[in-house]
């Protein structure tokens, strides 16, 4: 357990190496949030009530909370695994007496701790100062936090699966760019999923993406009955189980392939 705590510390230190980069990224997220609010405000001003299920106030709350959560859930696991494989350092990671996947998660967890402190907290304070109205449903905050934790797990497993495909593809950034665009659209981080056309909404119900942002953000910002909340949380749990199984399969096969490639 101690060695994984050390990797959490490594993840924290890696993010803190360049303080100017932290401030630059925080500034970029503030600009992104401002642009999002400006665009959606302009759309509602021009077209009025675009969707009867989501009014202007609910949409703005959704966008703000989605942006804050995205600052936490963002994962660089794919890029890190690619770099390790391309440089050959992956062999050294395999030699160490630790679980490779747990090590990656520990580093990611350390990175996330920094993001909470330097991105999520400042964005939350700024949003509350600017909006001056409650952003969260207080009665559902505990459910929302549970959902965010599950979403965090889904995002990590999804990223780990794409990253492990580098055992076969060597370079996965083209696939990552393609899936990244699809993922950001269907997850609800850009557009609330309730605004999707019926056909896209049906397709999305069979994919894990909405369980990453749409479900936790909706629970945090919209009043829901307990039955629907637990239904969404069960959906997240099912995706975690499914993605974990896929990860295990890819890991077992991919590790053998990597050993063969290395002689």
What does this structure look like?
The protein is built from 12 helices and no strands. With 263 residues, the protein is an all-alpha fold. The longest helix is centred in the C-terminal third of the chain and has 36 residues, at 226-261. The two termini are 32 Å apart.
Notable characteristics:
263 residues, mainly alpha, 12 helices, single chain
* Rg from Cα: 20 Å
**Sheet with the most strands, sense and barrel status:** none
Kindly state the mean pLDDT as a whole number?
Answer: 83
| Overall 3D shape | globular
Total count of helical runs of at least 4 residues:
12
Beta-strand content estimate: under 5%
Helix content: over 70%
The N- and C-terminal alpha carbons lie at a distance of 32 Å
> Could you state the order of secondary-structure elements as H and E?
HHHHHHHHHHHH
Q: From the helix content, strand content and strand pairing, which structural class follows?
A: mainly alpha
Query: Unreliable runs, pLDDT <50, ≥5 residues?
Result: none
Could you give a quick summary of the protein structure above?
The chain has 263 residues and is an all-alpha fold. It has helices at residues 2-16, 19-47, 56-73, 77-87, 90-95, 100-131, 141-164, 166-169, 173-186, 198-204, 214-221, 226-261.
Strand and helix layout:
Blueprint: H1 2-16, H2 19-47, H3 56-73, H4 77-87, H5 90-95, H6 100-131, H7 141-164, H8 166-169, H9 173-186, H10 198-204, H11 214-221, H12 226-261
Helix pairs in contact: 1-6, 2-3, 2-6, 3-6, 3-11, 4-7, 7-11, 7-12
